[in-house]
Amino acid sequence: MKNIKNQLHRAFEFVNNGYLKQAEILYLECLDEIDDQQSHFYKQAIHGLGLVKSELNQFKEAYQLYTEVLHITRNDKDVQGEAVAYHQLGMVERSSENFKKALYFFAKEYEIYDTMFPKFHLGFAANLYERGKTYLLQNKLKEAKNMMEVSLNHGDQTEDVIVVGYARRDLGYIFQQLGEKQKAMTHYTYALDAFQKADDSQTINDIEKKIANL
Q1: How far apart are the first and last CA of the chain?
Q2: 140-160 pLDDT, tens digit each
Q3: CB-hemisphere CA count at 13 Å for 102?
Q4: For residues 147 and 136, is the Cβ–Cβ distance under 8 A?
Q5: C-alpha dihedral over 209, 18, 70, 110, to 10 degrees?
Q6: Residues in the chain with pLDDT < 50?
Q7: I need a surface site. Which of 84, 88, 104, 207 has the fewest CB within 10 A?
């Protein structure tokens, strides 16, 4: 099992560095070697392969993999793992532009946090942000704004500058679309500060362009 653990770690590193095909090969090799489909390693490999398939825009395969993760977590009574599976299914469906189904899965994730982990502010912040993003992709600005603002409220109760930065950035964009330039500038400025703390140069450049175009 030590070899499997090392392979899974290498696959995860490949994903982080953008080497998706190499990660895919390793995850598939792990799945071939794992006999116990109830093991933690099997679930980890399925989840990782689902992420790779999503990044490769192979959404049907990703959906099937995350559905399997969902079934495993339910059988294990792993409610937090179940919430993560719902989140990933929501992400896949949104990428497939199945927005209604994406929102359904995000709502199922939210229900778990609301019932079982009412103080899990980071989970709420990420969930509400993705729901807001789903509305934004449909150009439903009012719904997107409401979700993003609640996401920001939760994000402010964490120490995670990234989740705050994304909510601020997208609220800036929403207010820009609504013609409220001062509010847009305020959110963009806070977002810029958050991503400077995170040392995310690509997103910093993106926000600076948005500010220049206000």
Answers
A1: 55
A2: 999 999 999 999 999 999 989
A3: 24
A4: no
A5: -20
A6: none
A7: 104
Residue 100 is predicted with a pLDDT of 98
CA distance 50 to 53: 5
Phi and psi based region of residue 35 (left: phi greater than 0; alpha: psi -120 to 50; beta: remaining) = alpha
Per the confidence metrics, is the pTM higher than 0.85? yes
Contact 51, 18 (CB under 8 A): no
Three-state secondary structure readout of the chain? CHHHHHHHHHHHHHHHCCCHHHHHHHHHHHHHHCCCCCCHHHHHHHHHHHHHHHHCCCHHHHHHHHHHHHHHHHHCCCHHHHHHHHHHHHHHHHHCCCHHHHHHHHHHHHHHHHHHCCCCHHHHHHHHHHHHHHHHHCCCHHHHHHHHHHHHHHHCCCCCHHHHHHHHHHHHHHHHHCCCHHHHHHHHHHHHHHHHHCCCHHHHHHHHHHHHCC
Residue labelled with tokens 């910093």? 204
pLDDT at 3: 87
